[in-house]
Design goal:
Elements: H1 11-32, E1 40-41, E2 48-50, E3 52-68, E4 71-75, E5 80-85, E6 92-93, E7 98-103, H2 105-166, H3 171-228, E8 231-233, E9 238-241, E10 250-251, E11 256-261, E12 266-273, H4 274-277, E13 285-289, E14 294-302, E15 310-317, E16 330-347, E17 356-364, E18 369-380, E19 384-389, E20 396-398, E21 410-413
Parallel strand pairs: 1-21
Antiparallel strand pairs: 2-20, 3-12, 3-16, 4-11, 5-7, 5-10, 6-9, 7-8, 9-11, 12-15, 13-14, 13-16, 14-15, 16-19, 17-18, 18-19, 18-21
Helix pairs in contact: 2-3
Length: 414
């Protein structure tokens, strides 16, 4: 027989569930209120610096290479084939020393043809002078003959007029002689004008042919110079570099054959980040570290644009080069921009890229913690940067990269 039991109460269970919910909510709220500074950082893992006040020399730094101040490239004046190498890269060469020999049979033929054209033009000029002079003499003779005929005809016409009045010559005879005199007068004038025209045109015709001779001679001299350039010689004394040709190799016109440099006259070519190069001016002092000594210099050239985020700066070296300083060795350069008197400054933070507001971690609690503060940075140097606002003299900040702690306002330092 079943015994009827009273229904079981759920009150205790509901109380337990409610208590559990309250505990979870309280724990969640408590965790949400925990200080994010619970994150820790090792003191030895970060770089800490103190804010100071005083004079600062503003500098920028970049790496680069030593390069010759004077480079003389040797290029092929004509297409040719390499026949003989008389020197090699790295040798000291003297001015006009033979470096290599090239050959081009077509160029030899072209040079001979150009010289033949000059000789033919000179012959044509001589023939033209002879012809023009002969024509001028013939015209002078014709003018003289015509003058005699004109004088005779004029005298006969005057005589006929006198005889007509005496009745010794019929009138038609006087008219004929007068007409003949007029004819010879016209012909004499025409021949004189022709003589003047011929005399005035001789010089211009000779000048035209003479200019052709000059032009062809210039072409021939150019061809001769190209032919002589096949014997490649050093344009000046120095060190021969980049002579990498091989026997039998064909080199087109304009190809760089080699270069001659002055090893004792070097300059430093530095690559400066474009964010720092904007304040560099010509004449500013510089120091070049060749890794075997320091050399003083000054800025002598600045590229107007940047390449790959860097601006090329040429530094002329004012002091003697240390031993081992040769072209193309790597160097480090420091350029002095200006002197900043009595400013507040500190070491340059790892991620500072220029002026403007940034957030840094300032040391507090006697060095046991660091909090995020807003700081406005000013002018920067290689290792230092100006503090405009946000920090005071004596404050300590973390210079290391704190990107992993970008979401916290406070860290503990252990």
């Amino acid at each position: 027989m079943d015994i009827a039991r009273p229904p079981r109460s759920n009150r205790l269970r509901n109380l337990l569930i409610g208590a559990a919910i309250v505990v979870v909510a309280a724990a969640t709220y408590g965790l949400s209120q925990l200080d994010p500074a619970s994150q820790e950082i090792d003191r030895v893992a970060v770089l800490i610096d103190t804010v100071k006040q005083g004079d600062v020399v503003r500098e920028v730094r970049g790496n680069g290479t030593l390069a010759p101040e004077r480079i003389r490239w040797i290029t092929a004046q004509a297409s040719a084939r390499v026949e003989r190498l008389a020197s090699e890269s790295g040798r000291n060469v003297s001015a006009n020393e033979l470096l290599l020999e090239l050959s081009n049979p077509d160029l030899q033929i072209q040079t001979m043809q150009a010289e033949q054209q000059v000789r033919q033009a000179q012959i044509d000029l001589l023939n033209l002078r002879t012809s023009l002079r002969g024509g001028l003499l013939s015209q002078e003779g014709l003018v003289a003959t015509m003058k005699t005929s004109w004088i005779s005809a004029t005298q006969e016409a005057r005589a006929a007029d006198s005889l007509v009045r005496l009745g010794l010559v019929p009138p038609f005879e006087a008219v004929n002689r007068k007409a003949s005199a007029e004819e010879f007068t016209t012909r004499y004038r025409i021949e004189r004008d022709r003589l003047e025209l011929m005399a005035s045109s001789i010089d211009s015709q000779i000048a035209v042919q003479g200019s052709r001779v000059v032009q062809l001679r210039a072409i021939a001299e150019s061809q001769t110079a190209r032919l002589l350039s096949l014997h490649v010689r050093a344009p000046e004394a120095g060190v021969l570099q980049d002579l990498t040709l091989q026997l039998g190799q064909w080199v087109p016109e304009g190809t760089a054959l080699a270069k001659v440099v002055q090893p004792g006259k070097l300059k430093a070519v530095l690559r400066i980040p474009e964010s720092q190069a904007k304040d560099i001016q010509l004449g500013q002092s510089a120091s070049i570290d060749t890794h075997n000594g320091l050399v003083k210099g000054h800025v002598s050239r600045k590229d107007p644009g940047s390449t790959g985020g860097s601006v090329m700066i040429d530094v002329t070296l004012d002091g003697p080069l240390p031993a081992g300083a040769v072209p193309d060795i790597n160097v480090d350069g420091t350029i002095q921009i200006e002197r900043l008197p009595n400013i507040i400054y500190t070491g340059r933070p790892a991620l500072s890229v220029g002026t403007g507001p940034v957030t840094l971690f300032k040391i507090v609690d006697g060095g046991d913690a660091a909090i995020r503060v807003s700081v406005e940075l000013g002018r920067s140097s290689v290792n230092t940067i100006e503090i405009l606002r946000g920090l005071a003299v004596g404050d300590q900040i973390i210079l290391s990269d704190m990107t992993p702690y970008a979401n916290v306002e406070r860290v503990r330092i252990k």
